[in-house]
C-alpha cells in the first residue's frame, strides 16, 4: 500500500521485556531507528515493571481488556485504567484501550483521555482482504 514505516507499530508483551536480552533491545532499537513504533501489549496483567517504561523506548501502552471489560460499572477497573492513562501521558506515551465493546466503555475512556481504542464496538476481526478494503474506503482509525 506504500505506507511509511512510521504508520506501523510492533506489539510486544511484558514477558518479552522481562526476559530482555541484548538481542531484544537491539531489535527494538532497530525498529525505532527505522521509524516503526513500539506498543507494550497487555500492560498490567503480567509481571509489570514500571521500569520497563523508562528503560525501553515504548510509544504506546495498551490497557488490557480485563480492565476495560467492566470499566463502565466497576470503580476499581475505572481507577486502574484512569491511572494508567495519566501515568502514560506523563511519560509521553499514547494509550490504546483493548476490548472496547460498547459505547459506555468508550465514553468512560474518552473522558479519561484515552488516545485510541480497539474492539468489537468498531469492528470484528477481519481477514486481510476485508481489512484492506476497509482501509481503501477510508475507514478512520478508532479514537477514544
TrEMBL record:
It comes from the Bacteria. Residues 1-139 form the EAL domain. Pfam families: EAL. CDD domains: EAL. This is EAL domain-containing protein. It comes from Noviherbaspirillum album. The lineage of its organism: Bacteria, Pseudomonadati, Pseudomonadota, Betaproteobacteria, Burkholderiales.
Amino acid at each position: 500500500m506504500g505506507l511509511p514505516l512510521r504508520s506501523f507499530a510492533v506489539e510486544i508483551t511484558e514477558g518479552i521485556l522481562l526476559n530482555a536480552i541484548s538481542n531484544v533491545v537491539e531489535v527494538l532499537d532497530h525498529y525505532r531507528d527505522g521509524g516503526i513504533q513500539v506498543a507494550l501489549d497487555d500492560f498490567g496483567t503480567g509481571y509489570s515493571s514500571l521500569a520497563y517504561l523508562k528503560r525501553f523506548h515504548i510509544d504506546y501502552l495498551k490497557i488490557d481488556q480485563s480492565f476495560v471489560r467492566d470499566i463502565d460499572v466497576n470503580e476499581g477497573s475505572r481507577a486502574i485504567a484512569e491511572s494508567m492513562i495519566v501515568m502514560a501521558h506523563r511519560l509521553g506515551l499514547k494509550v490504546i484501550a483493548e476490548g472496547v465493546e460498547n459505547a459506555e466503555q468508550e465514553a468512560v475512556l474518552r473522558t479519561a483521555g484515552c488516545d485510541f481504542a480497539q474492539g468489537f464496538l468498531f469492528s470484528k476481526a477481519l481477514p486481510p482482504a476485508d481489512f484492506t478494503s476497509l482501509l481503501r474506503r477510508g475507514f478512520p482509525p478508532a479514537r477514544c
